[in-house]
Specification:
Elements: E1 4-7, E2 12-15, E3 23-28, H1 39-57, E4 61-66, H2 73-82, H3 86-103, H4 119-131, E5 135-138, E6 141-144, H5 160-163, E7 181-186, E8 201-203, H6 205-217, E9 221-227, H7 231-246, E10 251-257, E11 260-262, E12 265-266, H8 277-280, H9 286-293, E13 302-303, H10 306-328, E14 330-332, H11 337-358, H12 363-383, E15 386-388, H13 389-406, H14 413-438, H15 442-454, E16 457-462, E17 465-470
Parallel strand pairs: 3-4, 3-9, 9-10, 11-13, 14-15
Antiparallel strand pairs: 1-2, 5-6, 6-7, 7-8, 11-12, 16-17
Helix pairs in contact: 1-13, 2-3, 4-6, 6-7, 9-10, 10-12, 11-12, 11-13, 12-13, 14-15
Length: about 475
């Protein structure tokens, strides 16, 4: 069966065929590092990771890039609030981001380019757009003229003609058209800035992504991913910039995930209903959270609630228990009808798993197929105390391969559980200590610190909260 994906560009299912046979060039919009990532952010990152893993499972060589936005208005405002530099803010929360995705077993990107490290390339891209007549300078700012790009709106459906009326975009007297967007923002007192042909300033958000994507993946990408909220204006503007500069298709397949909701509303920092990944880790293990995030199709809404987390935990326990049962079976040389039936049922489960993933990465159906494999293993283990050794290896390897597509680690499952319990207990003690400090019960708070220190756990109080390290584990 051919792999088919839903392409936001055209809003239709299409057979996936990368530009270069056997190779996939994939870009995912990464975080703006002004705070900890929340579970809604994590959904996009986990889904992208599963898609990357499945493409690799099918034999593709994947070049995977995900950026870091480390300069924008949100970062400037947050750095002021915290009384630190933007660079310090970026380092703090980019480190936290990489810690969080590691715990979620998200594979590191091949490159994680940062906007502030690519200013010369961004300036070069803007110069090219000005030279070709797609951009103009206005009092130290540089804007992209959407009226010059005929295909503007082909991704989102938001056509430049309608946007020119100013109905959706705040009127700016510097712009020729209300829909025009900033490529370069002139410097303001108290803000960081870089020298450019148009004066000191900083890049706009949209030009950062398209410039870094093309630097590391070439002029045409195979896959570009992100949440549906990025379709307009961010991804629409990326297309306009990139294709105006090169005259070539920027991205062949656009994939966008639906929102994560809380009580039916999109989880977001602006609404104040977000739950950070770190807070979620106190509610469940990273493996459970990861399985939950792929329990619905990526183009369907997913509601974050305790009942759904509990269901994912039950599924994960069932899967890992079945694998442990299989591996613990005694081995024998002879092949029985039960062995042959088990192989047949597991092969069928794998076929159904691949069929689901080939249908626009349908993870809920893939999980159902995986649970069918688990049922076959349990039925076999209920009726047999031993298994033919080649069958054991073959079945376990198939199951592990499917788990790896979903990013579920089984070999470290027991160790991870122990560590998660340890981390949870330390977090509880830190919460108790913080409450003691709030009540000005300093002796009790100091006692917790000292007793943890004797166990090898060191606490460090920082402006963003208490961090801890442990001698033989680290954090």
């Amino acid at each position: 069966m051919a792999l088919k994906v839903y392409n936001t560009l055209g809003r239709r299912m299409e057979e996936f065929a990368p530009l270069r046979p056997g190779e996939v060039r994939m870009y995912v919009c990464g975080p703006t590092v002004y705070d900890y990532i929340h579970v809604g952010n994590a959904r996009a990152f986990v889904i992208a990771d599963v898609i990357r893993r499945y493409l690799e499972y099918r034999g593709f060589k994947v070049r995977f890039i995900s950026n870091i936005t480390d300069i924008d208005d949100k970062m400037i405002n947050r750095a002021r609030e915290m009384g630190i530099s933007i660079q310090e803010l970026g380092e703090l929360y980019s480190d936290a981001y990489f810690e969080d995705i590691k715990r979620l077993n998200i594979k590191r990107p091949d490159v994680s380019p940062r906007a502030t490290q690519h200013i010369p390339e961004i300036i070069g891209a803007i110069e090219a757009l000005i030279e070709k007549g797609y951009a103009y300078v206005a009092d130290g700012d540089v804007y992209f003229d959407v009226s010059k790009f005929e295909d503007y709106g082909k991704l989102s459906g938001n056509k430049a003609e309608a946007l020119r009326m100013g109905a959706r975009i705040e009127v700016n007297p510097k712009k020729r058209n209300p829909a025009d967007f900033a490529l370069w923002k002139g410097w303001k007192p108290g803000e960081p800035g870089w020298h450019s042909p148009w004066g000191r300033g900083r890049p706009g958000w949209h030009i950062e992504c398209s410039t870094m994507a093309q630097k590391y993946l070439g002029e045409t990408l195979d896959i570009h991913m992100g949440g549906k909220d990025l379709i307009f204006p961010h991804h629409e503007n990326e297309i306009a910039q990139a294709e105006a500069a090169t005259g070539k298709t920027f991205v062949r397949y656009w994939l966008h995930n639906e929102w994560l909701t809380v009580e039916g509303k999109k989880m977001s920092k602006s609404l104040g209903n977000f739950i950070t990944v770190r807070e979620a880790f106190k509610m469940c293990s990273p493996q459970v959270l990861r399985l939950f995030l792929v329990s619905a199709h990526y183009r369907s809404p997913l509601d974050f609630n305790k009942e759904a987390l509990a269901a994912s935990e039950r599924r994960l326990r069932r899967i890992l228990r079945a694998l442990r049962r299989l591996i613990s079976l005694a081995e024998r040389d002879s092949l029985t009808p039960d062995d042959e039936r088990l192989i047949s049922e597991v092969e069928e489960g794998r076929r159904r798993f691949e069929e689901a993933m080939d249908d626009d990465f349908n993870t809920p159906l893939a999980i159902t197929a995986l649970l069918g494999v688990v049922k076959a293993i349990n039925n076999f283990a209920d009726a047999n105390e031993s298994i033919e050794r080649t069958t054991k290896r073959r079945v376990s390897e198939m199951l592990i391969a499917l788990l790896d597509v979903l990013g579920i680690e089984w070999t470290e499952g027991r160790v991870k559980t122990d560590r998660e319990i340890l981390e949870g207990l330390i977090s509880i003690l830190i919460d108790v200590r913080n409450e003691m400090r709030r009540r000005k019960e300093w002796k009790a708070a100091d006692d917790i610190r000292e007793r943890l220190a004797k166990l090898g756990v060191t606490l460090e109080d920082t402006p963003t909260g208490t961090r801890w390290t442990i001698e033989d584990v680290g954090r």
